[in-house]
């Protein structure tokens, strides 16, 4: 498995980069942002993932190892191939994706071309534990120093669903008692109860 390449940029397209690695031209498919970040004749490093099919071997290149890991993680969800995985990396940063999975933010996930509501729900179910296992997102313990963290995650999740910052903060106030009663309460529970409180408005 080729995990990264370092070479001279020999060609750039809208969605690909060719690196000359000691005279060997390696073409990698990239997001538009990655392709735009390199310069012709300059030395560059791309973190890579190879997708092998019966009739092809395709190398995908990314600006960071984090983006590559996200690309590979997304494909572990059923029904998700490299095309949609590449779209995820194009539309969302790794941190944005992790936050969306952790907070079950379907609206954010549905912004990715090719992902509908059902697909987003399936992705949350199948990837939540995998994301946690990778250390990308850990279930916060909302007590002591972690108190601000749960508020931030819930507030951002609500704003991602279209609520105003003011409404999101009010909803956080409404569920704060749950944290006092059980410091180990999960973000998903807090999000659901926050949404319930907003629905009563």
From TrEMBL:
Occurrences of domain Helix-hairpin-helix DNA-binding motif class (ranges): 72-91, 107-126
Location of the region described as Domain III in the Swiss-Prot/TrEMBL record: 147-201
Gene3D superfamilies: 5' to 3' exonuclease, C-terminal subdomain, DNA helicase RuvA subunit, C-terminal domain, Nucleic acid-binding proteins
A GO cellular component annotation in the UniProt record: Holliday junction resolvase complex
Single biological process term from Gene Ontology: DNA recombination
Keyword Flavoprotein (UniProt): no
Pfam hit, one: HHH_5
Key words of the record: ATP-binding, Cytoplasm, DNA damage, DNA recombination, DNA repair, DNA-binding, Helicase, Hydrolase, Nucleotide-binding
Entry superkingdom: Bacteria
Location in the cell: Cytoplasm
SMART domains, per the entry: HhH1
GO MF annotations in UniProt: ATP binding; four-way junction DNA binding; four-way junction helicase activity
Subunit and partners: Homotetramer. Forms an RuvA(8)-RuvB(12)-Holliday junction (HJ) complex. HJ DNA is sandwiched between 2 RuvA tetramers; dsDNA enters through RuvA and exits via RuvB. An RuvB hexamer assembles on each DNA strand where it exits the tetramer. Each RuvB hexamer is contacted by two RuvA subunits (via domain III) on 2 adjacent RuvB subunits; this complex drives branch migration. In the full resolvosome a probable DNA-RuvA(4)-RuvB(12)-RuvC(2) complex forms which resolves the HJ.
Function: The RuvA-RuvB-RuvC complex processes Holliday junction (HJ) DNA during genetic recombination and DNA repair, while the RuvA-RuvB complex plays an important role in the rescue of blocked DNA replication forks via replication fork reversal (RFR). RuvA specifically binds to HJ cruciform DNA, conferring on it an open structure. The RuvB hexamer acts as an ATP-dependent pump, pulling dsDNA into and through the RuvAB complex. HJ branch migration allows RuvC to scan DNA until it finds its consensus sequence, where it cleaves and resolves the cruciform DNA.
Domain writeup: Has three domains with a flexible linker between the domains II and III and assumes an 'L' shape. Domain III is highly mobile and contacts RuvB.
Family (UniProt): Belongs to the RuvA family.
NCBIfam families, sorted: ruvA
Annotated protein name in UniProt: Holliday junction branch migration complex subunit RuvA
Organism: Luteococcus japonicus LSP_Lj1
């Amino acid at each position: 498995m080729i995990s990264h390449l370092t070479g001279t940029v020999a060609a750039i397209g809208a969605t690909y980069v060719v690196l000359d690695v000691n005279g060997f031209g390696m073409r990698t498919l990239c997001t538009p942002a990655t392709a735009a970040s390199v310069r012709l004749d300059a030395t560059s490093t791309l973190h890579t993932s190879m997708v092998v099919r019966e009739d092809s071997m395709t190398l995908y290149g990314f600006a960071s190892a984090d983006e590559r890991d996200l690309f590979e993680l997304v494909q572990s969800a059923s029904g998700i191939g490299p095309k949609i995985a590449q779209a995820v990396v194009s539309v969302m940063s790794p941190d944005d994706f992790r936050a969306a999975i952790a907070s079950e933010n379907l609206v954010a996930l549905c912004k990715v071309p090719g992902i509908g509501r059902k697909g987003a729900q399936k992705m949350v179910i199948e990837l939540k534990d995998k994301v946690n296992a990778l250390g990308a997102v850990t279930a916060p313990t909302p007590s002591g120093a972690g108190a601000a963290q749960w508020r931030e995650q819930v507030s951002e999740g609500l704003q991602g669903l279209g609520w105003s910052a003011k409404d999101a903060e009010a909803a956080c106030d409404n569920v704060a008692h749950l944290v006092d009663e059980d410091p180990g309460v999960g973000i998903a529970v807090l999000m659901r109860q926050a949404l319930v409180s907003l629905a009563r408005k």
